[in-house]
């Protein structure tokens, strides 16, 4: 008898839940690669219920979604925040449920080490922020960094209703 994971994999469904880290990102990326190796799927559905996590593993999932020959549709439910929101935004078709909680914010970073190491990590932090800004500009209706800092990438968490997410172009559809 097939397991639930085998059944949903055969149907082109991937579930991303909990904190996004290297292990989860690797798992999602491997599933997308495996699904691309079959000829039978017309789409992949990536269901997301996550408060976010680490941005670099999030970008690996984003890169894989963009690489996939099979269109990846994203569906947010429960909580879709931070890096998870960025992944949701990348889908070919982006849907959230009417009860989905959505949170956008600037990423946080802790610097430690020698003075030289802190300076090096600060450069990486600036580059990551630039990548985040470019991602929002590509996948939302907001087209300037200044507007992003006033609306979605504030210094504090920005919680959005599904209708606001639709208004800002973060999603295409609300599922009722």
Uncertain runs: none
Task: Specify the CATH homologous superfamily.
Answer: 2-enoyl-CoA Hydratase, Chain A, domain 1
Q: Assign a percent range to the helix content.
A: 40-55%
Number of helices: 7
Secondary-structure-derived class: alpha/beta
**Largest sheet report:** 7 strands, mixed
CATH topology: 2-enoyl-CoA Hydratase, Chain A, domain 1
Give the beta-strand count. 7
* H and E order: HEHEHEHEEHHEHE
CATH architecture: Alpha-Beta Complex
CATH class: Alpha Beta
Description of the structure:
The protein has 176 residues and is of the alpha/beta class. It has a single domain (4-175), classed as 2-enoyl-CoA Hydratase, Chain A, domain 1 (Alpha-Beta Complex), CATH 3.90.226.10. The protein is 46% helix and 20% strand. It is built from seven helices and seven strands; from the N terminus they run H-E-H-E-H-E-H-E-E-H-H-E-H-E. Strands 1, 2, 3, 4, 5, 6 and 7 form a seven-stranded mixed beta sheet that branches. Helix 3 (55-67) runs parallel beside helix 4 (83-90). The longest helix is centred in the C-terminal third of the chain and has 25 residues, at 115-139. It is globular and about 55 Å long. The mean pLDDT is 93.
